[in-house]
TrEMBL record:
It catalyses: ATP-dependent breakage, passage and rejoining of double-stranded DNA. It is found in: Nucleus. This is DNA topoisomerase (ATP-hydrolyzing). It is an enzyme of class 5 (isomerase). The keyword Cell cycle does not apply. Residues 77-137 form the Spo11/DNA topoisomerase VI subunit A N-terminal domain. GO terms for biological process: meiotic DNA double-strand break formation; meiotic DNA double-strand break processing; reciprocal meiotic recombination. Keywords: DNA-binding, Isomerase, Magnesium, Metal-binding, Nucleus, Topoisomerase. It comes from Morus notabilis. Gene3D superfamilies: 3.40.1360.10, Winged helix-like DNA-binding domain superfamily/Winged helix DNA-binding domain. Belongs to the TOP6A family. The active site is at Y105. Its main location: nucleus. Its cofactor is Mg(2+).
């Protein structure tokens, strides 16, 4: 159960073969009186030691964790891992899909909470050297999309172009997304958009929809409704790879908005093993910047003091190596937020004129190149 980590085939038949090999090795160890050892690579998409020489990589593991029956604290983790692996094996054999929540409710007394299942799924992905969707484990999609785009998912057709300001759910099975079929031949995803805009919150997405933003601007607008789920990030990655459009992100001017922005661009620590396939290095930060409060004369009642938790989160984010290495200007803005000690929501920009965000702020920043 050792070996060099590398991405391997993610075809169901190959994954099932690796599951059989894994379980066979466990059974052989037990049959021969040996305590099985499960070696799980550990990944990290950033380090937080400012004095260390940073060698973070999106491809290579940073050490490994050893699970063994000889440690009492590991016994339950291995039990959970094997139960979830058995469920995954059945999903692959029957060519069915299940959500993380579905898996949790198969053994709720054993799993105790959802995070236990989530960790096991991530560990299985690392052991089998694949992505989560390859296991036929899917998220309950929450992302939304609108704009100048036409595509299909399996038998469903999404024609956003005819009504570009109408919201559509982001497909869960992103691997099945393609263009419409013409004359029995598959076509490419179709778009006449000039850019992609990602907004943090559904309320801002709805504001843009109500203002007919996409009717007036040739673009695609996406929201993950907070921290983005995997389908939203995969769908965005697919659009960028296919359409080669510039991409901008609009988030609240607070530590959580900044963290959501960083999740899009650099990936999450929880799924660092898949960061290379999920991260969006092309992402530009459109706003909101700390300096926007003065530039656009936001009312004082829109500026909220940073809480102690906000400050702790900001200071922790500032330690991430990728900020200094890849986006030092982002880091300066986060430092400025801390220095000023205030935060504000995107909606504050429309405090005086409801349509300001869609009519002035976003178009002027994109056209003027005012982004980081």
């Amino acid at each position: 159960m050792e070996g060099k980590y590398r991405r391997r085939s993610s075809e169901p038949s190959d994954l099932l073969k690796r599951i059989r090999e894994f379980t066979r090795a466990l059974v052989e160890d037990l049959s021969n009186g040996r305590s099985p050892v499960i070696s799980i690579h550990r990944f990290s998409n950033y380090c937080t030691n400012p004095n260390a020489i940073c060698c973070c990589s999106y491809d290579l593991p940073k050490g490994r964790e050893i699970l063994t029956f000889q440690r009492e604290s590991h016994v339950h983790r291995i039990d959970v891992l094997l139960r979830v692996l058995l469920i995954v094996q059945k999903l692959l054999q029957e060519n069915k899909h299940g959500s993380k929540r579905d898996i949790y409710y198969m053994h709720p007394a054993v799993f105790s909470e959802q995070s236990v299942v989530d960790r096991a799924i991530n560990e299985i992905c690392i052991l089998l050297q694949c992505s989560r969707h390859n296991l036929n484990v899917v998220s309950v999609g929450k992302g939304l999309v609108m704009g100048w785009l036409r595509f299909s998912e399996s038998e469903k057709k999404f024609d956003c172009i005819n009504r570009p300001s109408i919201a559509h759910p982001i497909p869960v099975h992103v691997e099945e997304v393609k263009g419409f079929t013409f004359n029995s031949k598959p076509a490419d995803i179709v778009s006449v958009a000039q850019y992609i805009l990602v907004v943090e919150k559904e309320t801002v997405f709805e504001r843009l929809a109500n203002d007919q933003f996409c009717n007036k601007n040739r673009c695609i607008v996406i929201t993950g409704r907070g921290y983005p789920d995997i389908p939203t990030r995969r769908f965005l990655r697919l659009l960028i790879d296919t359409l080669r459009l510039p991409t901008y992100c609009l988030v609240d001017c607070d530590p959580y908005g900044f963290d959501i922005l960083a999740t899009y661009r650099f990936g999450s620590m929880q799924m660092a093993y898949d960061a290379k396939l999920l991260r969006i290095p092309e992402m530009n930060w459109l706003g909101a910047f700390p300096s926007d409060s003065e530039k656009y004369n936001l009312p004082n009642q829109c500026l909220l003091p940073l809480t102690a938790e906000d400050k702790r989160k900001s200071e922790a984010i500032l330690l991430r190596c990728y900020l200094q290495r890849e986006v030092p200007k982002w880091r300066l803005e986060l430092e400025l937020m801390l220095q000023r000690g205030v935060k504000f929501e995107i909606e504050a920009l429309s405090a005086r004129v409801l349509s300001f965000l869609s009519a002035e702020y976003i178009p002027s920043k994109i056209q003027g190149g005012i982004y980081l």
